[in-house]
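Progress note, project year one: complex with zinc ion.
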Amino acid sequence: MIPKEWVDLVKDGLKYSYAPYSGIKVSALAITPDGKVYRGVNVENSSLGLTVCAERVAIFNAVANGERKIKTIVLTSSLDEPIYPCGACLQVMSEFGVEEVIIIHGDKIIRHDFRELFPRPFNWRKEENREK
Ligand SMILES: [Zn+2]
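Model obtained:
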């Protein structure tokens, strides 16, 4: 089980998605180890390449509020099948130590260990040099 608040918050976020090109609304939560929740939605752009996914918006929102560790990502979309994070988002998740990705699809809750989704992130910095 996950907190009902997470399910409600992530589903509620779909209404803030800005997706006039794809029509695919995506909402995500970035949750810190102490339980703080930051939401993001996908933000598309007419140049398409500037589009940013909901997961990265949620993580950047957390970072902009002083967070440096994200434990869990919760994700949902308007698609009629479960949505999975893209490679760019997985790489950004790895930067902040995400441990679990939870996909909400209707009443279904699909949980994945982060390493199962992204076993070998790119990481050129030594652990001891990492900003804490
Ligand atoms: Zn993405």
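Residues 53, 55, 85-86, 88-89 surround zinc ion (CB under 6 Å).
The chain has a mean pLDDT of 95.
No further modelling is planned for this target in the current period.
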